[in-house]
Amino acid sequence: MASPFPFLLSLLLLLLASLSSLPDSSAHLTLDYYAKTCPKFDQIMQETTTSKQMSNPTTAAAALRVFFHDCMVDGCDASVLVASTSLSKAERDSDLNEALAGDAFDVVTRAKNALELACPGVVSCADILAVATRNLVKYVGGPFFKVRLGRKDGRESVASHVEINLPRANASMDQMIDMFTSKGLTVEELVALTGGGHTIGFTHCKEFSNRIFNFSSTSEVDPSLNPKFADRLRQMCANYHKNPAIAAFNDPLSPGTFDNLFFKNLLNGMGLLASDQILVADPRTKPLVELYARNQTVFFETFARAMEKTSVIGIKTGRHGEVRAQCDRFNTVRSQS
Ligand code: HEM
Q1: Residue 160 and residue 36 in one domain
Q2: Which residues pair with 248 in a beta bridge?
Q3: Can you give the pLDDT at residue 336?
Q4: What cystine linkages occur within this chain (predicted)?
């Protein structure tokens, strides 16, 4: 009789492969986590995110960026929402997070207030941020993705952890790939996530000013930029030193819609950030930019899968976290280094 060993081995390998995409800790999360303890969770989240986005259309981009910055730094535990105290500087006040938009914090606070009335002490801020982001991405035209629930809120938020976990606009491709792969995200997912993030929202002039003013000794403007686009940016940002709030749309062709135009723009020299532009310059990522520019379905599928993975990075469950009463402070104040 043939040995069952090869068959069992391949079954085991298949099982391992299917588990390998999500970290072990995510096994504690479930889609219907609040079904009994907070039956109105989905409805309250839907109502809150829709009304906030309708009154402030910048909310979707704000939330998506805040969510990404939360998950990359010590996991999706709402540590980015915590305010600094006299004893400790929180993530939110690190240099890299200084431009996180207030609408993201506001939509979480609104949802938290409504949920605390309906089911006090039950729903974590980390779950609220994850679901708000998912709902808002969908609202502006992006793909739906599943968000499993039950993540707890973290008990620390340390500003100095931000710099080592998030890329800056002048990051090299190696640095970006290292940061993403260290969180279990692939190069395909890096490109899809970045394209998803930068197909909506804004960037302040200071983030790309070195590409449009005094670029080099031989060229005033980065030659990889489309010249007409560079001219428009130079006009728009002419006074950015005096007015640092001036910002450009990340995707000038469809700024409020989640679509694959970011990738088409990149191929036409219309990426704002140097970190976006190297996606088309580097041979490891260029074919992916071309693929997502050609095929929005593949982009959406990869983005949705990557967001599902991102949403369980470093999550805290059980005693490793808490359900905060207010999203901007820990339940018990602890001193931090
Ligand atoms: C790959 C490396 C990345 C770098 C270097 C980077 C850097 C930046 C910078 C410098 C800005 C402009 C901020 C400002 O001036 O206010 C920005 C905006 C934004 N980023 Fe990224 N980003 C990266 C990836 C991502 C990813 C993966 C996402 C989400 C999945 C994302 C989502 C966003 C969003 C939504 C905005 C607009 C925010 C708003 O309008 O409020 N970014 N990013």
Answers
A1: yes
A2: 203
A3: 47
A4: 38-119, 71-76, 125-327, 205-237
Q: Is residue 155 part of a domain?
A: yes
Round to whole Å and give the CA distance between 264 and 287.
12
Dump pLDDT digits (tens) for 183-242: 999 999 999 999 999 999 999 999 999 999 999 999 999 999 999 999 999 999 999 999
DSSP 248: E
In a domain, residue 3? The reply is no
Structure confidence at residue 26 (pLDDT): 73
Any atom of ligand 1 within 6 Å of the Cβ of 65? yes
Ligand 1 atom having least distance to the Cα of 201: 40
Cβ 44 vs Cβ 336: under 8 Å = no
In this predicted structure, what is the pLDDT of residue 334?
Answer: 55
Whether residues 154 and 271 fall in one domain: no
For the chain, how many structural domains are there in total? Answer: 2
**Looking at residue 28, what is its pLDDT?**
85
Q: Is 246 in the pocket of ligand 1 (CB under 6 A)?
A: no
Comparing C-alpha atoms, which of 138, 147, 142, 143 is closest to residue 50?
Answer: 138
Residue 332 confidence (pLDDT): 81
Is the distance from the beta carbon of residue 193 to the nearest atom of ligand 1 less than 6 Å? yes
| Predicted pLDDT at 21 | 59
- What pLDDT does residue 279 have? 98
Q: Are residues 159 and 183 in the same domain?
A: no
CB atoms within 10 A of CB 287: 11
Residue 74 resides in a domain: yes
| Residues of the chain falling short of pLDDT 50 | 1-2, 7-20, 335-337
- Ligand 1 within 6 A of 194 CB? yes
The residues annotated as belonging to the active site are: 69
Does residue 16 lie within any of the structural domains?
no
Q: Cβ(234)–Cβ(284) under 8 Å?
A: no
Full residue range of the structural domain in which residue 272 is found: 173-309
CATH code of the domain containing 181: 1.10.420.10
Pocket test for ligand 1, best of 56, 59, 65, 80 (most atoms within 8 A of CB): 65
Looking from the CA of residue 99, the nearest atom of ligand 1 is 16
Predicted local distance difference test score (pLDDT) of residue 1: 46
